[in-house]
Amino acid sequence: MLFSAVKQDNGYNSLAIRAIEAMERDHGVHVRQRVAAEEREVQESIDAFAARGVGNIVLLGSTYAEQARRAAARHPRVRFTLLDAAVEAPNVRSVVFREEEGAYLAGLAAALTGRGGTVGFLGGMPIPPIHRFGCGFIQGVLAGAPKARVAVRYASADLDGFRDTAKAARAASELLEEGAGVVFVASGLAGIAALETVAAAGRLSVGVDTNQNGTHPGRVLTSVIKRVDVALRRTVEDGLAGQWRPGVLHLGLADGAIDWARDEHNEALVAPLAARVEEARRRIAIGRIRVGAPEDTPACAVLTPKS
What we know:
This protein has about 300 residues and is of the alpha/beta class. It is about 40% helix and about 20% strand.
């Protein structure tokens, strides 16, 4: 398994590590792990795994899409699983999350707090999964407060947006200066600093990937949970059962792979609005509410950085 940038990020990658530990314990499999950010490191790592006879390689993150495409051609007998991007190849399974479904719930909650005149979205960098988070959030906000304004910032144009805490904190400060009463922080490890910035200002934030409600109790409205562990467990169990197949696998609310977080740390915040959010959750899961994709939703054009 290849991780991009860092392994322990208190979010996306940390969930993957948790899944690895569970699979090694429950199924007796051994998962080799490497961190590879630069293209040369990625290629060398994949080639080294293949040379050692590793038949299944998992690449965590959409930034690995092009490397996955090339590696699949170089190693046709290896099965690749790519998370967060779609690559068409006879030996690649692409797992794409419906982040927009959980983000819609967070956006609706943000609108219903009464602080939704202006809300903020802070993405780590402008890539498809982050756009899906942002687009779902915007749609949820507008469902609850049609006249609301959504301000958008990216911490960086590259992977620094997920690891540079100073950049994330600065972007959060800019959103607060624009009057954002709630800020959705989708910026990985760097986002921890943004959550702290928002809490210190007395505003509300929304966490991402894991349940971050407890980082600043009473100041984190909710978290959009992205169950990377569910996707990895399904991939490994499919492989062990001989049911692994290439193609694109979409996972969302109905699959238990996306959700919003409600616990003792945010109960006082969400209790007044939980019934409406839960109803939206139910309707999304059964297909009664369709959350649009960024390319099909005019309101989400704000997510595309101006050149």
